[in-house]
Amino acid sequence: MTEPNIIEATNPLRELSPQDLRAHAAEALTRARARSVALTDAVDDEDLTRQHSKLMSPLVWDLAHIGSQEELWLVRDVGGREPLRPDIDDLYDAFQHARADRPELPLLGPAEARRYVGQVREKAFDVLEKAPLEGRRLTELGFAFGMITQHEQQHDETMLATHQLRKGDPVLHAPAPPARRAGSLPPEVFVPAGPFLMGTSAEPWALDNERPAHEVHVDAYYLDTTPVTNGAYAEFVDSGGYRQPRWWSEAGWAYLTAHDITAPRFWRREQDGWWRTRFGVYERVPADQPVVHVSFHEAEAYAAWAGKRLPTEREWEKAARFDPATGQSRRYPWGNEEPTPEHANLGQRHLSPAAAGAYPAGASPLGAHQLIGDVWEWTSTDFHGYPGFGAFPYREYSEVFFGPDYKVLRGGSFGTDAAAIRGTFRNWDYPIRRQIFSGFRCARDADGRA
Fold first, then answer.
1. Cβ atoms within 10 A of the Cβ of 98, count?
2. Which residue, 33, 59, 243, 437, has fewest beta-carbon neighbours within 10 Å?
């Protein structure tokens, strides 16, 4: 019997007419803007301009930055139009000013910021109607419009994280996520040894660090069927895991002790168990949901305590994309179609992860659940470019972050929009980060070793 060919699924965007492609881009941009408006209209002007944490920008900075990037790339570059506000370019350049310093800048006020992003969007839509979607790499198949959509949605998730850090009464509301719908699940799935195609050369809106597709070999391993839950993580905490340096790396233990960390961020121990603060609501920690707001160091320590380890990035992607029956690397664990509410917890549809086993329709061919949505998953891999990487359209998106300072996260969270996640999408952050919507799952070698 011959082995299936190692191939990558194609993207449906490649089959659209120019008219339909423009409509698709317009819908994606509109959905992103609706979310930006909802996140900024939810609070008053004082909250918009306040810095809720030194880790985050004021919400009004994010809003105007979204408009500034859209002006730079769609209005000026793609459209060749005259600048609207060249005087604010430096103010909203993320590399010019640290987040902690942004409240001291002469930022646009709430009304002016809203007016500015509205003017930019009007011109951007005019550019979308007229710009050729071929003949130039930046605009091929609408890439620039997809890039700006993803940029806005990424900042929407950042603003959602700012809301989580905000003090005060709840201002965001959403229905509760679904309960477990899968039947009995094994604790782990087996991923056989062999090659698969990692990354992509077929996704028109894929960003530079996802490219190019390249074949890699992965040894056999076991992967947790679902992300680690709050209940499982509480066992680690209650067993003294945060008091025993043997589970922690040297860097992790140093950070833990220096900052007196004793549990996941936003958790608090009460007489009747663990409680958490979630977007202004104080509630009991739900045992069946994936743990969230843990750093790489915390994830790594739990894995060591459990006799396992964190998966490498290539192990995560193989479990999420590889179909052993066809040899195809899928766009998503469930197949090549876009995510629906039956597949994954995405797009701020809910304001927390869903219970483990809540999305059986989103399972991968190998049986892993919830690889997309719910929580970003830490991997053990440092952020780097793939073989053949080329920075595009600017080095500051990915290349300047390459190196051992950042760890890769995969899969998206409940705060990630479908436009900004796929089986190849790569996120990265410092291993100490806890305010992001991060969780993890564990792996172990097939020979039983961690």
1. 10
2. 243
